[in-house]
Design goal:
This protein is α/β, with parallel strands linked by helices. The protein is built from 37 helices and 17 strands. It has a six-stranded mixed sheet, with helices on both faces. A five-stranded mixed sheet has the order 13-14-17-16-15. Strand 16 and strand 17 form a beta hairpin.
């Protein structure tokens, strides 16, 4: 039998569809003839999907199905290899081929590390017919889309495997359109260009079980996990579609396991025997015997049989014990052993239509969802069988249009910004706050307060906090939606898993960029707005308490409250106080201390004073508070202590200098950690005094200007870093950033920990501390800092000499940012990347690696220029 007999036709290009490899090419391509089973032909292309005897795709991985059949070292090898690196494959190609054979896969590797595929001769014509059937349905949709939207040229995304024949044939048929191959989940995630139409060429769940497409796990995922992955896949498809874009899916017809039966008559004895052989190899719902021309079959078994399977010749020979199938009598067929290989792979609990609708209807308005059997397939079946009482189907089709989220992400953010309650501008929101984990923690705090589980706070304060939760008359209307979100915490956790299954998007799941998804999942407009306010902060109250801004930041809140009647304005402030407490506790990961709670209530009472007394403004109140603490120096010390989260020293920091060693130990309750905090406060006092004497003592105007400037700065990203570093380095950072500002009043430390996971923060902070000790304080006099500021504003970036601390100026946001660049680590990364890329052509360089190189070169060049 020769592969020339199976050349494509009927609308296919006039060339070898599978690109068969001839025997005289084996040696030059590095193919071992012993790796090619009888009845198969080697080729460079393969059918899109062929079920193997273990389930899965005989051309995909099969890894899920044979996970417990392979040795650990074999599994490790398969996880390590990649067809993108032939140099790794060529060293172990014999072992890899032996594993593939054991897995029943129709894929092999040449001695040069290149993959090739085995095409079973008896399935070539069936495969081409299957491809043609799908092509016809896809072609109809493409033509329908063109007539619907009156455009001649479209961008069309095809989600399928790299070697799927359908992609090549579509590109040939519709040359006027631009086709984008999306052959993996990672490529779908990375795609930035929008498309008009997305086509998926197989069942969604079947696609996700192919390791070549979604390398998310080694073990077969649970049904729940697979549904989460399907949701994630469709959300990514939704994001790359243009407004009004469409999704079309054409998958093999599959039905759930069932007791339903039908009568089937076989037209030939060979077909009859093939079906009986099939029932002895696979674990069918019923056991079948040859006892006549017509038999009653389970419809699940029938549908699986019609899909076609590849069974290795060795397996057939083993079950037939060397005999020819045609020579066996009915009794001999009935007495064949049962191998009971698993059948069906992914099975649907109810129906394929319901399973598809469950995930698709969230993102798409359904236009078509129906099973079909093309006429060509019907005619072919009629030559093999006659069906009674049941009509099998060949494919399932879905066509849907992208839903328009109401409201959309921009509308929600605009509404939140116009509410006068926004705690921070969106670009300046701390990364850890824009996460599902932070939102859920905040809502959990509200839930615990509603249940009155706070026993370690003064009872009076707890009662005042809980008033909006238990007394409707004192409840601001927005709190109703917060309480609804508290009741949806389990739903939010489920949505988080759908938007980031298995942490495929990274260790955290963002909220703001997924607002459209949350809208599509059914969260109301008001609930989405509350989520945005939790992320950005319900007013700047929490930022004032953390020393990041002064009380003037509450001007929009007090103006809003003044426009309401007395009862509603007080309810508004109670709501803001409650949400501030919840957000602060979610931020620091623990309950507020007594001192923090006291500061919160003091700030609330100050806000009430401003709202109720129209003759008072925030400037007057701030000046009065500065005077009450003994001047601006003391106010600045209080600000720094708040930024360090050292609230317990707000009232007694001045007295610590007078304490002796024994008194300090007693004050710390002989706790080493508390003692270290006392020593850090003393270090802060000494550092501030040192800088005053060294750089400001001779010019009282400079001293006052510095403190006033510092008091008015809006700090971002200080929460996690300032509570961990020494007070000396903290003040050095504050001194540097304050003195390089011109007219700006925003300083951000967010980038310092932006690239560090929560588990790595403490170790990373130690490195920052060591680097900070290299900053020579002797050179931080004002003339030098003016030169540094001039360089920063001219170049928009500069380094602090001799260190990896980088200052960046953003002229659009009018802000200054401090970052830390680990130059030694980046230099090593650069060498490693260049070594990996040196033997590859530029067009083969991954886009992400090019972006990483650009960032590395920018930082190194900036350091050199500084």
């Amino acid at each position: 039998m020769k592969p020339d007999s199976y050349l494509p036709g009927n609308g296919f290009p006039n060339e070898d569809t599978f690109r068969f490899i001839k025997p005289d090419q084996y040696a030059s391509l590095g193919i071992d003839p012993n790796d090619i089973p009888i009845g198969t032909f080697p080729a460079l292309k393969h059918p899109p999907h062929l079920p193997s005897r273990f389930g899965g795709n005989a051309y995909g991985s099969g890894l899920f199905e044979i996970y417990d059949r392979l040795k650990p070292e074999d599994i490790k090898l398969l996880q390590e290899i990649s067809f993108d690196h032939p140099e790794h494959l060529e060293k172990r190609y014999k072992l890899i081929n032996r594993i593939y054979k054991k897995m029943g896969l129709l894929i092999r590797v040449t001695r040069f590390g290149k993959p090739y595929y085995l095409i079973p001769a008896h399935l070539v014509s069936n495969t081409l017919r299957h491809v043609r059937a799908k092509l016809e349905e896809i072609s109809k949709i493409i033509r329908f889309h063109r007539r619907k939207y009156f455009k001649e040229t479209y961008s069309i995304g095809i989600i399928t495997l790299k070697d799927d024949l359908i992609f090549n044939e579509l590109s040939y048929r519709f040359r006027e359109h631009s086709f984008v191959l999306i052959d993996s989940l990672s490529k779908l995630r990375a795609l930035s260009d929008e498309v008009d139409l997305v086509i998926i060429t197989r069942d969604i769940y079947e696609l996700l079980l192919l390791e070549d497409f979604a390398a998310v796990t080694t073990k077969r995922p649970s049904r729940k996990r697979l549904e989460e992955l399907a949701c994630y896949l469709l959300w990514k498809v939704y994001q790359i579609l243009k407004p009004g874009g469409e999704l079309f899916i054409v998958g093999d017809r599959k039905i759930p396991k069932t007791d339903q039966t039908g009568i089937i008559s076989f037209k030939t004895e060979e077909e009859y025997k093939n079906f009986i052989l099939f029932s002895h190899i696979f674990r069918t719902q019923r056991k079948y015997q040859m006892n006549g021309e017509a038999i009653e079959v389970n419809v699940f078994d029938l549908q699986e049989y019609l899909r076609g399977f590849y069974i290795e010749p060795e397996v057939v020979a083993r079950i037939l014990k060397g005999a020819e199938l045609n020579a066996l009598s009915p009794d001999q067929m009935n007495n064949l052993p049962y191998l009971n290989y698993p059948l069906g792979g992914w099975t649907f609990p109810t129906s394929q239509e319901k399973a598809w609708s469950k995930v698709l209807d969230t993102f798409f308005d359904q236009v078509i969802l129906k099973p079909i059997t093309p006429e060509a397939v019907k005619k072919e079946w009629e030559t093999r069988f006659t069906f009674d009482e049941y009509e099998p189907h060949y494919m399932l089709l879905f066509l849907g249009q992208k839903k328009d989220p109401r409201p959309g992400i921009d509308e929600i953010k605009d509404r939140a910004a116009s509410s006068n309650l926004l705690g921070s501008l969106f670009p300046l929101v701390a990364d850890y706050r824009d996460t599902f984990n932070y939102v859920i923690e905040t809502l959990s705090v509200i839930g615990s307060l509603k249940k009155d589980v706070r026993k370690d706070y003064p009872e009076l304060l707890v009662d005042r906090l809980r008033q909006p939760l238990v007394n409707r008359r004192r409840r601001y209307h927005r709190l109703v939606h917060i309480l609804k979100l508290v009741g949806k915490i389990r739903t939010l956790k489920k949505l988080e898993r759908c938007l980031n299954p298995g942490l495929i998007e990274g260790p955290v799941t963002r909220v703001l960029c997924n607002l459209d998804a949350l809208s599509l999942f059914g969260l109301t407009e008001e609930e989405l707005e509350e989520l945005v306010l939790i992320v950005a902060g319900h007013t700047p109250m929490g930022r004032v308490l953390a020393g990041k801004v002064n009380e003037r930041a509450l001007q929009p809140l007090s103006d809003k409250a003044r426009g309401l009647d007395t009862q509603r304005s007080l309810n508004l402030l109670r709501y803001c106080r409650l949400m501030t407490l919840a957000e602060m506790e979610a931020s620091i990961g623990q309950k507020l201390s007594q001192e923090q709670l006291r500061e919160l209530f003091t700030l609330y009472e100050d806000t009430v004073k401003i709202v109720m007394n129209h003759d008072m403004d925030w400037d007057q109140l701030l000046d009065a508070k500065i005077a009450s603490v003994g001047g601006i120096h003391n106010a600045i010390m209080a600000k720094l202590l708040k930024m360090m989260n050292y609230y317990e020293f707000l009232d007694n920091w001045k007295d610590l200098k007078e304490k002796g060693p024994m008194e300090k130990e007693s004050l710390a309750d002989y706790d080493p950690k508390k003692m270290a905090r006392i020593e850090n406060v003393l270090q802060l006092i000494d550092t501030v005094d040192l800088f005053e004497r060294k750089f400001l003592e001779n010019d009282p105007f400079e001293l006052a200007a510095f403190y006033r400037k510092l008091l008015n700065i809006e700090f971002h990203g200080t929460g996690r870093i300032f509570s961990r570093i020494s007070s000396r380095l903290l003040f050095v950072f504050v001194w540097l950033t304050t003195n390089v500002l011109y007219e700006e009043n925003i300083v951000s430390f967010k980038p310092i920990l932006a690239r560090v996971s929560p588990k790595e923060i403490d170790e990373y902070v130690q490195k920052i501390e060591m680097e900070g000790n290299r900053i020579n304080v002797e050179y931080l006099h004002l003339p030098f800092l003016r030169l540094l500021a001039e360089q920063l504003h001219h170049n928009e970036t500069t380094f602090i000499v001799g260190t990896g601390f980088q200052l960046q100026f953003d002229p659009e946001a009018r802000s200054v940012t401090l970052d830390y660049v680990d130059l030694d680590k980046d230099t090593d990364r650069l060498h490693s990347m260049l070594d990996r890329l040196s033997n590859r052509r530029l067009v083969e360089w991954p886009l992400q690696m090019i972006k990483d190189l650009q960032e590395l070169f920018f930082d190194l060049e900036s350091f050199y220029q500084s």
